[in-house]
Each structure stands twice: as C-alpha cells, then as structure tokens.
UniProtKB/TrEMBL annotation, chains A, B:
Keywords: DNA-binding, Plasmid, Transcription, Transcription regulation. It comes from the Bacteria. The keyword Transcription applies. GO terms for molecular function: DNA binding; DNA-binding transcription factor activity. This is DNA-binding FadR family transcriptional regulator. It comes from Aminobacter aminovorans. The keyword Transcription applies. PANTHER family: TRANSCRIPTIONAL REGULATOR, GNTR FAMILY, UXU OPERON TRANSCRIPTIONAL REGULATOR. It holds the Pfam family FCD. Residues 29-99 form the HTH gntR-type domain.
Amino acid sequence: MQKAPDAEGSGLTQMVGPAERLWSSGKQTTLSASVIDQIRTVLFAGRLAPGDRLGSEASLALQFGVSRMTMRDALRSLQASGVIEVKVGIKGGIFVAEGNSERLAETIAIQLKLIGISTEELLDTQIAIEVMAAGLAASNATGADIKALHDALAEAERLVDDAEEFTWAAINFHGCVVAASHNRVLAAQFRALSHVLMPLYVRGSSPDVARRAVAFQRALIACIEAREPDAARNLVYGRLQFVKSRQLGDLAKGEAGD
Amino acid sequence: MQKAPDAEGSGLTQMVGPAERLWSSGKQTTLSASVIDQIRTVLFAGRLAPGDRLGSEASLALQFGVSRMTMRDALRSLQASGVIEVKVGIKGGIFVAEGNSERLAETIAIQLKLIGISTEELLDTQIAIEVMAAGLAASNATGADIKALHDALAEAERLVDDAEEFTWAAINFHGCVVAASHNRVLAAQFRALSHVLMPLYVRGSSPDVARRAVAFQRALIACIEAREPDAARNLVYGRLQFVKSRQLGDLAKGEAGD
DNA sequence: TCGATCCCTTTGATAAGATATTTAGGACAA
DNA sequence: TTGTCCTAAATATCTTATCAAAGGGATCGA
C-alpha cells in the first residue's frame, strides 16, 4: 500500500480501522481478499449510501496500491455479492449497489441447491415463511393486495383442470399472499424457495388436488379480508402441513418403486 | 482439454443447451458474463457434484476460448457467489463448491443491509423462523440438543446481571433451539438475521428483561422435552411478539427524543 | 433548435511474464 | 523401515502493457 504516494490520506483506505468487523476474518491471505475486506468494512460502517460513486477501477487501484487487475478481481467479487455495481462509459465507474431483493432470492436458491437441502427442510421453511406472511397479510393487506388475491384466485379456478398451469397459478396466489404481507425479507425468501420447490409441486398436481387448493385459497382470502391474523395463520399452517405430508408421502412411495 | 481455439466441441461448453435456465437471462453483454452463465447452467443441470474438479484456470480459459484474465473474472464472480472453490498448488484448480451455509448467512446479511430492510420486517422474519424452529425442535431434538439447551440456559442464568453478556447468551440459547430443529435453511437464516439484529437486542437489555427471558427459556425447554410442538410454537410466538412490540416501542420512544 | 459526429473517459478483453503457494515425491538420516 | 527435509512441478496470484468497445458530452453544421 505504500506504492500510492498521493493516494494516502484520502479516499477509502484511511477509513479501515477496526470497525464492526462483521465479516472480516482478520488474517487475509491474498491481496485481493484484503481489498475486498477493506471495501466491505467501509461500506458497512455506514459512511456510504447506495448509489454513491467510489471512483474508477484505476483510481481505486491507486488508492489501494495494487495493480488494476488485482483491483478488478476484488471488484468482480464484490459485484457478484451484490455490494457494488459497475458501469461503463465516461460517467461510469464503481458504485455502491442498490439493494436488490431479486439477487437475494437468486443467491439463496443457488446455495440451497449446493448445500443439498432435503425436501423436508425446504417445505418446513416454506411453511414458516408463509404462515407468518399470511398473518401479516391479514393485518397489513391493502385494497390493491386483496384485489390481486381475488384475481389470482379467479385465474386458479379457471385453470383447475390443467395440472401444470394450475400449479403456476397456485404459486402465484401464494406469492400474492406473501406480497400482501409487505415484508421484503419474507418475499425474497419465498421467491428463492419457490424456485427450488417448483418441480416438486408440478409433479404432485391433479384436478382433485387443485379443487382442494382453490377451497383453501377462498378461505384464506376470507380470513385476510376479515382481518383475522390468527385464523389466517392456522389455516395456512394446517394446509401446508397437509401438503407437506402428501409430498413426503409421494416421495416415499416413489422411492419404493411404485 | 484440447487446444480448442474457438472452444467448440469439447469439455463444458458443449453442454450448454437451453436447459433449465433458472438464472440465465439469455443475451449476455460481456464475455465473462457469458462464461459465468454457461458454467452455472452446467452445474445446475446436475452433471457435476460438489467437490468435482473443473480444471485449472488456464485449461478452462482454453476450453471457453477466452483469455486467462477473462476466465479469472468469471471465476472470481462464481467464487463470490459460492458456486466454485479455488485452490492453489499442484493439486489445485477450480472445484465445484461444497455447500456452505455460513456463506449463505453472510450473503443474506449483506443484502439485508443493502436493501435497507426495516426493523419490523426483520423482527417478523425472525419470528417466522424461530416459531417454526421451536416446533421442529420439540419434534426432532436429540438428547445432545437438549443438553445443549440446558447448558445455554445455565449460562444465561449466570449472566443475568450483565446486560451485554446476557444478550449474547440469550441469542446463543435461541441458536441452540434453531440447531435442535435440524433444519439447515432455518439455521442459516437465523444466523443472518442475528448478525443484523444484534445491535438492537444489546441496546434493549436490562436485568429485569433478562429474568423474564430466562423464565421463557425454562418454559421452552420444558415444551421441547415434553415433545409438545404446538405448545413450543405458541410459547415462542407469544414471547417474540412481546419482544417485537417492546423493541418497536423503544424505537418510537427513542425517535421521539425521550 | 436539432441532429450527427467526434472526442474523452472508463470498463472489457488480451498477452506475456514474474511471484507466491501448495503438494508430490525423492533424498537422507535415524 | 520410518520419519523428516528438500526440491521440483503445477497452480493461482499479481504485475505491466496495450488495444477495443461503450457511453456521455461537446462541437459543428444545417
């Protein structure tokens, strides 16, 4: 870092003291890892807001006293973790990223796949998310939310005889419930889990199943419109526990070769 | 591994057909983004398992027909998203990553900070996770889990007069409950949320609060030992709703300047 | 005023080479 | 035979240098 005679004392590098250190492991082996660590620390010390410009690749490389390629390595990592955004062109450079819940959902989904989470673990988490969301929806849903729920229900009813299409409509309905909770964390987690669970649901569908699902949806809308969080929670919990046992039962049956 | 100059016909690149396409947006603007997309697609098509070796930087660059630096860019991104692991040395190279729930927790925490999630959203998600975890713990807890819970309780009781230390012990207790659920998704999400919520909890602590918390912990252990999932769920739900209202109340009071 | 063109900044990509790190395998001693 | 140390090879890491592409802004002409 000594190689930056005019870069010292200004910019990012000086702010790196022993701050919060949520993710900094302390001993960094590689140079780029150290740069990543420093930038993250600065960002989460709260001095920089989303949209702020950090500078250009080249100027940052100077400030940190590393070559442009090393800086690039670090920036690509930060970009992939969603910490920064990179823009080309004369007004381009490195910017603090706007939060992106779509990316959050994507990252969760990737990791879930890699970790090799069991179906039961996924379903249980789905239950946790949706039960809470249903309760919150009953408290927080706006008129627009309720209209969206009715629309989703109508669409699902229309498709009750087309197994695959119905599954998508049903998931959309559940998504509307989660959206009505007005909780972005729950929403992101729901999206991630849906990605992973989709194949399962599509497989287990049938017109008979679909009709039961529609009845459930109607009842849930009633709870939400009546502003009864506890009733909504219980309804969703009971319903999803049933869905879970059916899915796991099917799974066992399938594995038994029947 | 042949010197495929334009990378056609061998290795990874040929497997890239229009598969599942969960995350591939189709038109890629940059070369490295295209490489990232191709590798991700191949990985999630299921042909490769965690721990598999993809090759060295150089050989992959040859296979994809790009320069080593472009390949590096792509690899750094994939590494940051936890898709691959990179090892140095004679037996090193690029490997499919083992799932890493610690990384999952870290990524979730980063994104939560960036998105600027509200305290209420975080607390509600925490409630969702812990209620489900408590119910599962009552069903699944092993002898070792229950011993860990007792140990955590004893430690918390010991620290009841030291606000800061007690907060850590209490969070540890909650962590033990989540661990006893034997659900890794819930566990990762709990860790991520804990990172972000920690400062809040530390602030709102006092010996009086601590004694109520210990009483709750004792009751929860009883439910788990008695294998009563519903009782455990209700207990945790009631308790965390109380904690939430206290936190949000404190917040409002603080903001009002008193 | 409007539109096209040029120019400058910044990232994207390539190339060649030096350095650090890890591990396999051999050499040597007990 | 066994354990330890050393070397060599494979590999990522890092550096320097160069050119191409993209994107705004300014200039010039109609």
